[in-house]
Amino acid sequence: MSSTTFGQKGIEAVHNKEYAAAVPLLDKALESSDSPAWLLARAQAQQQLKNYDAALHDAELAYHVAADRGSGTSRKLMIDAQYRRATIYFKLGRYADSDCCAKWSMNLAEGRPARENDGVEKNVDKDGNYTLNYEDAVADKKSQPGQSGARGGAAALATSVSTAKTGFENEWNRAYAWRSQALGMLKGLPEDHPGRKVSVTKIPARPVKKKVEPVVDSSDDDEPVSTPAGNPTKADDPAPGSVPDEKLKLRVDFYQTNQTVTVSIFVKDVKKDDLRVEFAENQVQIAPLPREVASYVKPGDREATSTFILGGGIVPSGSRWTATPRKIELVLQKAVAGVKWGKWGEEKIGAVASEDVQTATSSSQPAAQVSAQQAQPSPSTAKAPTPPKPAGAPAYPTSSKSGPKNWDKVVDGEDDEDNKDVNAFFKTLYKGATPEQQRAMMKSFVESNGTALSTDWSDVKGRTVETIPPEGVEAKKWT
Description:
Blueprint: H1 3-15, H2 19-30, H3 36-48, H4 52-69, H5 74-91, H6 95-109, H7 134-139, H8 169-187, E1 224-225, E2 233-234, H9 245-248, E3 251-256, E4 260-266, E5 276-279, E6 283-287, E7 306-310, E8 320-324, E9 327-333, E10 345-349, H10 372-375, H11 422-431, H12 435-447, H13 457-460
Antiparallel strand pairs: 1-2, 3-4, 4-9, 5-6, 6-7, 7-10, 8-9
Pfam families: CS (PF04969), SGS (PF05002)
GO molecular function: protein-folding chaperone binding
Organism: Podospora appendiculata
């Protein structure tokens, strides 16, 4: 397989949020070429896997490689590299550094010189704390590309400066929205918190490329090469046991009803006739499983077996499974009907004895671990006890691709790629505005029929804000 194919597959895996599978594919691709696009894809995957040092290494190297190449896509890749630095520093709790990188991403999107001395990182006081505040960042729109007056609908804030389009308007908006998160976090930090310190530079030090073995180019992927021991090994296979368990684990999705939990296990090239699925009261064991991330795995190897420790007790005889070439689906009958599982469970690589494990539910969910026999009322019992609702469990069945959501406790700030919709941004903007700015936002938005949004009360308080629709759209009065 060529490096280009590895790179394309790696980027595709990142797009599908299969981060553990993406890293080894991009490792292979980057052995022969320092493609900034591949480096940025691997940086995103490493960030989602919480390998922040590796992610930062790739983002900074991508910036330098893109700048060196000077091709037509270089500026876009440099913008993306600065944005990736911003998201990584945010995850590390370095919020001042995160805001600086987001601002540099905006500057590049505006078409400003990459080596311009803009002094962003010098906004610090005598104690070294970042002095830029949330309100300053919200008002920092004078150079927003592609804006003219109040045009652009609800997605554009009112501005009095007309600027030319650069082709990077979406990238600018993305970095601008990210700044609201970084500076929002800074608002609540104590004065001596390290997250207030600025330690980044606009152009990062060039990282040293990690030393890797060259790719063995073979015209036939199935052609074995001889090793000193005389054992045939595929040229693109890592050594057995060299892939960590976390990267071997498969992508799993699930939904549940009062009676069953349906678990979907995504794995390619499943051979249904060879598959062995064993149900127990607290786990399901499956073998042999092909591992795309470690293609050396053979039937009988430890890596070819997975034990799925379940999030609650099941009735093995009432459970079933089906398989297609790309997915294994388990339909598990709950031992206690009506009890919601907080999660489906967890995957363990290799065989695990049933008696050596407990269900993967938390201690706050004892009802999910009750056996089917315990749930049945005895003849002397007038009424069976009602199982308590597990703490933190979802209120209703769900088929969401991201799994069940606990609406009583929504975690803030996770997944930088998913927190970018316009409504969420405006909620954050409104919440952080002063009462006067909120009045201006409400008045301008309502009077303009949603086509303008201003935070300047002195500008809008004495006039009716005109409806100015986007180009190509005609405003009509309701009759």
